[in-house]
């Protein structure tokens, strides 16, 4: 049978788009000697602070102060590196597990946890902090990131969007649509897949037969990069280069960071039903904080004073978070209808009136009961 007509040709050369066979690493290699000491110390401070943030937020769920908390313990290197790779004018698009990335970018920890507390749909002003609302539906933040990045480029704004997603999110249609649009439009956006091994209880092998998730980039015409997600300087370097490339008009990049979710999916999950304790312990030996401490110690940067100041700073953050999260917020039930549309629909107005009437009737019923008490 004859082949396609001569006019057919590959759109792009696939070779430069392919990821490396093994995850990119820096710590423990000769490349680590070239790392800036200030960057190493900054990453370490954020990692320690992030671990303490995770443990404190998890404790708040047990105390009834959070409805749910999806911990990123073990994944802190991905979260911190994503935040530090961006410029102030850039945008971060987090998923529900990425509150630490938002905090590392400068968001107040209480505001980052407000959604998970159940007080507001979003506890912060996205425009003010350049952080999109935490996204609970899987991967729906990815097309949003592409749209914002594409619009920014059309307006001439020097802006890059960085979107975070888990390995489970790569099985969603939104993932396909976002990558396809991003590549066709050459939008200035970076996709960071945190491959932590499981989509709740579903292991990666039951989601995809691809050599790696980074290989999926080739099918869309963008570079795929594979990195050790527990190696904070490696993740930071790969993301920084991807952000620079996007800002200079090089288009999108898909980065897969191989990491591990040490804690359960959320406080409502029993992870022992689908993975072994030996598997978890094997990953604890590759802990991102321990990897950084080895490097800092080898270079004489982890002094007693620096380590103590880092721990003290993390404890102060946790204490402040704990104190403020134990204060009951003043909530207005009518806010349920205030921020749905710019102008309330007829149905929303009717629902708001009905709620007010029910609250007024409840208050009127409670007053006689209170007066009757001795």
From TrEMBL:
Residues spanning the membrane: none
Region feature (Disordered): 351-374
Lineage top rank: taxon: Bacteria
Keywords assigned: Oxidoreductase, Pyruvate, Thiamine pyrophosphate
Cofactor(s) demanded: thiamine diphosphate
Compositional bias of kind Acidic residues: 364-374
One example of a Gene Ontology biological process annotation: branched-chain amino acid catabolic process
GO molecular function, one term: magnesium ion binding
NCBIfam families to which the protein is assigned, alphabetical: PDH_E1_alph_x (TIGR03181)
Name of the protein: Pyruvate dehydrogenase (Acetyl-transferring) E1 component subunit alpha
Lineage of origin: Bacteria, Bacillati, Actinomycetota, Actinomycetes, Kitasatosporales
């Amino acid at each position: 049978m004859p082949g396609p007509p001569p006019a057919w040709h590959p759109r792009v050369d696939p070779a430069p788009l392919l990821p490396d066979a093994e995850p990119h690493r820096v710590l423990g290699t000769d490349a680590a000697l070239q790392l800036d000491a200030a960057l190493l110390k900054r990453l370490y401070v954020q990692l320690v602070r992030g671990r303490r943030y995770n443990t404190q937020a998890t404790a708040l769920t047990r105390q009834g102060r959070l409805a749910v908390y999806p911990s990123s313990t073990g994944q802190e290197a991905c979260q911190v590196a994503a935040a530090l790779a961006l410029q102030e004018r850039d945008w971060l698009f987090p998923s529900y597990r990425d509150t630490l990335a938002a905090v590392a970018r400068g968001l107040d920890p209480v505001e980052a946890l407000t959604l998970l507390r159940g007080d507001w749909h979003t506890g912060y002003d996205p425009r003010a902090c350049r952080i999109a609302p935490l996204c609970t539906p899987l991967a729906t933040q990815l097309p949003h990131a592409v749209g914002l990045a594409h619009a920014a480029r059309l307006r001439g704004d020097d802006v890059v969007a960085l979107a975070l997603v888990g390995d489970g999110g790569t099985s969603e249609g939104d993932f396909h649509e976002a990558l396809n649009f991003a590549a066709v439009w050459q939008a200035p956006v970076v996709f960071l897949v945190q491959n932590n091994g499981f989509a709740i209880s579903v292991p990666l092998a039951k989601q995809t037969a691809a050599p790696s998730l980074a290989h999926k980039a080739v099918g869309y015409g963008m570079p795929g990069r594979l990195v050790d997600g527990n190696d904070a300087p490696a993740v930071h370097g790969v993301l920084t280069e991807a952000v620079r490339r996007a800002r200079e008009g090089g288009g999108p990049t898909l980065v897969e960071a191989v990491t591990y979710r040490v804690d359960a999916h959320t406080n409502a999950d029993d992870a022992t039903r689908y993975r072994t304790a030996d598997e978890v312990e094997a990953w604890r030996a590759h802990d991102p904080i321990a990897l950084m401490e080895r490097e800092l110690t080898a270079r004489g940067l982890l002094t007693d004073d620096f380590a103590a100041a880092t721990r003290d700073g993390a404890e102060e953050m946790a204490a402040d978070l704990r104190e403020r999260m134990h204060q009951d917020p003043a909530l207005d039930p009518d806010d349920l209808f205030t921020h749905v549309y710019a102008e309330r629909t007829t149905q929303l107005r009717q629902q708001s009136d009905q709620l007010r009437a029910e609250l007024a009737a409840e208050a009127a019923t409670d007053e006689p009961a209170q007066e009757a008490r001795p």
